[in-house]
Each structure stands twice: as structure tokens, then as C-alpha cells.
Design goal:
about 150 residues, mainly alpha, 2 domains, 7 helices
């Protein structure tokens, strides 16, 4: 059985305190804060691995969306860009690994063949069918690229 994510986070926090790693402590603080907000929101959420994963995934996605803005800022954006990349990498250690391009393509080709999907106009249907069964395993951007390539060929 795997260690609950909360325990993994707490262990990383202890390591960060011992190592005086301010960056790691800041990320952990942000993640804990997001989970606490969710727990106190009155939505009836309970502290589970899924809640932690949702918040970690959401925070990493938010950081990825900010990367292009930091890149556009030039010299001024470099410290922000480096910090965001560090935080994304930190978050990814807790998230399940996504399948690579070859595995993604195999799934897309199998779904297209099984359901008789061909042509670029049917990409939405193909994506929907694939995501229905493999949502947590696949990177959405990579899936779209592979599906476009498969349907174009």
C-alpha cells in the first residue's frame, strides 16, 4: 500500500525544514493552504488523497499557464519563471505519471479503429471516447496532438 499523500507532504516539509529549503516550504505551504480552503469551504469535502491530488494538479496547471507570461517578461520574468518551474517539478512528484507519446498513440489508434472514427472532423468524438477510459493516464495536450496526427493520416 502506498503512503497517503498528506503523509508524503508532511515528510517533505520535515525535510525542507531540516535543509532550510525555503522554496520547498513555500510550495508545501501553498498546497496545504489550498486543501484547507477546500475543507473549510462548506462543500463537504473530506481530506483524502483525491482531494490532495486535485489541488496539486490544479496548482501545477495554474503554474503551467503562467509560464508563457513569465517568458514574455524577458529579464524581469526569469526569477518568476525559475520559481514556477521549480514548483511544477515539486508538484509532479506527487502526481501519477502520464503515458508517453507512443502509448498515447496506441490508445488513440485502438479507439479510432474500434469505433470507426476517421477524418479530422471527428476529433471531438475520438477525444471524448479516449478520455472516458484514460483521463488520468494521459496528458491532454499530447492527446490532442496525437489524435490530430492519427486522424489526418
Amino acid at each position: 500500500m502506498t503512503t497517503p499523500i498528506k503523509e508524503q507532504i508532511e515528510a517533505k516539509l520535515r525535510e525542507a525544514r531540516i535543509a532550510r529549503d525555503e522554496r520547498a516550504r513555500n510550495v508545501i505551504g501553498m498546497l496545504k493552504s489550498k486543501v484547507m480552503v477546500e475543507l473549510k469551504s462548506g462543500s463537504g469535502a473530506t481530506e483524502t488523497d483525491e482531494l490532495w491530488l486535485d489541488n496539486i494538479r490544479s496548482y501545477a496547471k495554474q503554474l503551467r499557464k503562467a509560464l508563457p507570461e513569465y517568458e514574455k517578461a524577458g529579464e524581469r520574468g526569469i526569477p518568476l519563471l525559475e520559481e514556477a518551474k521549480f514548483e511544477i517539478e515539486f508538484c509532479e512528484q506527487f502526481l501519477p505519471r502520464k503515458l508517453d507519446e507512443a502509448a498515447t498513440e496506441a490508445i488513440v489508434r485502438a479507439a479510432a479503429a474500434t469505433h470507426g472514427i476517421s477524418g479530422p472532423k471527428m476529433i471531438g468524438k475520438l477525444l471524448g471516447l479516449v478520455l472516458k477510459d484514460h483521463k488520468d493516464e494521459l496528458d491532454g495536450d499530447l492527446l490532442r496532438q496525437v489524435a490530430q496526427r492519427v486522424l489526418a493520416g
